[in-house]
Amino acid sequence: MSTPDKHNTHTDQNASDSGINAWKGGLVIPPLRPARTTPQPATPRAEPTATTSPSLAATAASRPPAWPHWLRGALAAAGVAVLMVGCTLLWLRQTPPRIPSVERAATFPAPTAATTNHQPRTPVYRALTIGINRYNADEGTGWQTLQTARSDAEALSRTLRDSYGFQVQTLLDGKATRGAIMSTLDELATESGEDDAVLVYFAGHGFYDEKLKEGYWIPADARRSVNGRTAKEDWLWNSTLTHLFGAANARHVLVLADACYSGALFRGDEPLAARGGNRNWYERAFAKRSRYLITSGGLEPVLDSGSGHSIFAQQVLNYLAHGERDIFSANDLGIYLRENVARMTSQMVQMGPLPVSEHAGGEFVFVRRSAGSPAMLLAPATTDASAASTARGPDEVGVTPAARQAAMRSALTLAQAGAPRAASKVVTVALQQNAQDQLAQTVSAYLERTRKQEARDELQTLLAKIEAQSRTRPADPAQAPVVRPRVLACLGPAVPAGASTPESAGALYRVILSAELANRSIARLVEREGLASILQEQQLTLSDLADPRARTAIGKLLPASLLLLGDLFPTKGGDRLSLRLVDTETTAVVASFQQEIPADGDLAAGCAEMAGRIAERITALRPLLAPVTKDDGTRLRGDFGTYHGGSTNQTYALVTRTPRDPAHASDFTEQLVGTAVIRSLSDFSADLEATWSAGTAPVRTEHLWVKEQSATP
Predict the structure, then answer these.
(1) Alpha-carbon gap, residue 239 to 250, rounded angstroms
(2) CB of 694 within 8 A of CB of 688?
(3) Nearest-10 Cα torsion for 247, 250, 254, 260
(4) How do the domains of the chain map onto residue ranges?
(5) Residue 394: what pLDDT?
(6) If you ran DSSP here, which 8-state letter would residue 309 be given?
(7) What are the helix (H) ranges across 279-370?
(8) Other beta carbons within 10 Å of 122
(9) CATH assignment of 6-30+122-391, given 3.40.50.1460, 3.50.30.40, 3.20.20.140, 3.40.50.1780?
(10) Where are the beta strands (DSSP E) in 15-124?
(11) Which of 204, 223, 333, 413 could make an SS bond with 132 (beta carbons 3.0 to 4.6 A apart)?
């Protein structure tokens, strides 16, 4: 929102007229049904007797008297009946199509088994209203105080609850933090029933990034900038909100956004035309899923002024409180707002479907409490085949590879933004459609690990073990060194800044690559999210991994480790991955990889191929080398295990490493004497079975080592 200034003085005068009566001078909304008037029949009605019907009496007199009396009476009654039917039809034809009236839609008869093919289910109307006047000050880098946002949300909450029977949750000022908003939206999205209708109203500051083409809602605890850069991590991204609204269980979701640049949520404009008119239309609109948006403006500032409310909010309240219709749609409301807000301000109210596939052409339908139960007036369930096909919308996330990937990106976006339940719901839908969907299975496992904070806990355990090992290194260089694990921090690929591809695309590749590398057990894997949380405690970030200083900082945490960095570049034919391995101690790039993933290709298969090449290269660069001792004949024991990347049935070369100079353990001669296979192992020890090379003499156990072999030279 924007506060009024001298350039908007004309809108202040208009604002004073935006009270209860302002709606009357705007668009005339016809009533849902014409009022019934008492018709005056062309001829007076009378009892069906022969004496009161001259025409029938004359006819009777002309007939032979032999006709029975009962027959003459029947003919007279039939004539009167025909006359009454004719008068009724004439009245119906002459009834005017539109007559202003306060008659309510409660006069509609309730659906019966004779008129419907289904049993109506009761929809629950829910709402979350958010109004923020006061933002947390942050040493001059916060957001300006607003005047009407809180009162707008409070007034709308009362109207929705008292006049329409909504279950309303309200977040005002300091309670409308980023975490609280996301948590409440997550709960609202996942706990709503499939027949429910959810309304979300936001009044507060907004922001639009022209370069990224991304809009934001600003929560109460958001910083405007930090260390000279915009603090977007504190804001609610429109793209994230769109994913969340799309993932909601509810049949209908309506978003009312009264914030600057709220039009950035919008997909496309709908024509200014009425679409409803009778109950049958509203029943059909209600039966289909909808995701609809009405904003107070486009990509522009909007006013924070009016007679106690913003212009937009006042007009919403006017229509809801004083409109003539008892049943109306979001489109009806939007048409009224567009006409009236434009008349009073320069703002361009926008309305239309959100850019999500869940919108199936339905409408959010309001029903006043005075009209009766929505279940009696609307019929969300249906047995009609064509309606049933659109009742749930196109949730077929597993139909094409592109659709499956889009769904999984959406799930990751929601999880990272603080909506884990909505994220799980998206994955659950995919797995219900195809339980063997490897992509969904991997993302599901990742979400579960994230929920349990396993990545963070495992990294903290790893750091503690590395520190403990560094304290136990032998002082005598001639002694066998402590075996250090291979550590790989999977930090890429990432989407370059300014790219049109959402960051969730990079996150999906990282999740799949990490899972594939973990399955190969070639290193202790560190996930980006786990490392980011550890670095945050030390006031470091992963925002600029290209900076050698950032790599050095990570190297202090993970000595002698490797970082997997890189970028995801969208192309016309799909995605191009460009990854590189970086040594944490030297910050040098030690290997690079390229991979093309076609748009219609199998992302999981492509990542598996790339993970195989990365694993081979890591093995060649950092082969596992550990001393072993001979128990008896071919039985060997080594001081390494799963912690170091060992796995059962893995085969190693068996070598002797004889120092040329005992004072310099790194100067030695090496001779291949056989192979060794791991039969069992724990975290820090392994039992191996040796196969000695022909003609190999017995060796001294203190010089016996196992060495990992790689197909990569």
Answers:
(1) 19
(2) no
(3) -30
(4) 6-30+122-391, 50-94, 401-451, 454-621, 625-707
(5) 40
(6) S
(7) 279-287, 311-322, 330-344
(8) 13
(9) 3.40.50.1460
(10) none
(11) 204
Phi-psi region of 277 (alpha: psi -120 to 50; beta: other; left: phi over 0): left
Q: Which residues pair with 567 in a beta bridge?
A: 494, 578
Q: What is the pTM of this model?
A: 0.70
Task: Mention every residue, 6+ apart, whose C-beta is less than 8 A from residue 324.
Answer: 29, 30, 31, 100, 101, 102
Tokens at 217, concatenated? 């809602």
DSSP code for 357: T
**By the 8 A CB rule, do 98 and 71 touch?**
no
Strands 487-490 and 524-527, bridge-based pairing:
parallel
Whether 237 and 178 have beta carbons less than 8 Å apart is answered as: no
At residue 164, the pLDDT reads 94
Question: Which of 252, 303, 324 lies closest to 99 in space, CA to CA?
Answer: 324
pLDDT of residue 352: 85
Dihedral angle of Cα 218, 220, 226, 230, to the nearest 10 degrees: 0
Q: Which two tokens stand for residue 104?
A: 């309510």
Euclidean distance between CA atoms 218 and 152, whole angstroms: 16
Distance CA 58, CA 75 (A): 12
- The bridge status of strand 229-230 relative to strand 236-237 is unpaired
What does residue 407 show for φ and ψ, rounded to 5 degrees?
A: -65, -40
Sole residue written with tokens 């260089």: 477
The amino acid sitting at 662 is P
Give yes or no for a contact between 690 and 672, defined as CB atoms under 8 angstroms apart: no
Sign of CA dihedral 265, 204, 177, 498: positive
Long-range contacts formed by 600-604: CB under 8 A, 24+ apart: 600/400, 600/401, 600/402, 600/574, 601/401, 601/574, 602/401, 603/401, 603/405, 603/439, 603/508, 603/509, 603/512, 604/438, 604/439, 604/442, 604/512
Please answer whether residues 34 and 96 qualify as being in contact, where contact means their C-beta atoms are separated by less than 8 angstroms: yes
pLDDT of residue 214: 82
pLDDT value of position 163: 94
Pick the CATH number of 625-707 from 2.30.30, 1.10.10, 2.60.220, 2.40.10: 2.40.10
Domains 6-30+122-391 and 454-621 share a fold: yes
Residue among 287, 229, 236 nearest 265 (CA): 236
Complete DSSP assignment for 116-133: -SS------EEEEEEE-S
pLDDT of residue 698: 59
Residue count (the chain): 713
Q: Which two tokens stand for residue 133?
A: 């006047």
pLDDT score, position 478: 45
What's residue 100's pLDDT?
30
Q: Contact at 8 Å (CB) between 567 and 490?
A: no
pLDDT for residue 73:
57
Q: Which is it for the CA torsion 538, 409, 202, 368, positive or negative?
A: negative
Spatial distance between the Cα atoms of 605 and 368, rounded to a whole number of angstroms? 54
Distances (CA, A) of 81 to 1, 45, 46, 296, 434: 67, 11, 11, 58, 64
DSSP state of 367: E
Q: How far apart are CA 566 and CA 223, in angstroms?
A: 30
Phi and psi based region of residue 670 (left: phi greater than 0; alpha: psi -120 to 50; beta: remaining)? beta
Q: How far apart are CA 529 and CA 631, in angstroms?
A: 43
Residue 473: per-residue pLDDT: 52
Stretches where the chain sits below pLDDT 70 are: 1-122, 137-141, 260-277, 298-307, 375-399, 469-482, 498, 500, 536-551, 662-666, 696-702, 710-713
